[in-house]
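Support request, please re-run this one:
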Amino acid sequence: MPVIHHEIFIQAPPEVCFDLARDVDVHTRTTSETGEKAVGGVITGLLEKGDAVTWEATHFKIRQRLTAEIVQMDRPHSFTDVMIKGAFASFTHTHEFRRKGNGTIMTDTFDYRSPFGVLGRLADRVFLETYMKRFIVSRAKALKKMAEEKA
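Re-run finished. Output below.
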């Protein structure tokens, strides 16, 4: 199972970063390259523990839907979402926010399993892990920009 781990320093308080990261509307703006939008469950505003959201997006030229649920939340330190329906065999995405000086270290840990057994593991090595890392880093940079403008 690949695990993608990414850290970024944001010159903004953890509370600002935390709320931006769990905001459905912000998620849509920070994933515009895939046309991601919320189409079910909580479709606007801040996600809370127990909330589920269904995202629709285009990845690899295929329109897909994925439903994730917030299973853990400790504001403003961390929250975790897990896929309950979608293209992956499974995923757990943990978002952590640690104060550092005047800012925040935001950490994403994305632990996933591809479908299709051996073929899925081959896809991970050939392109999927790189694609997912680029997606997570791109979103983190967009959140950083928004948080620093807001702070």
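The longest strand covers residues 62-74. The chain has one domain: 3-150.
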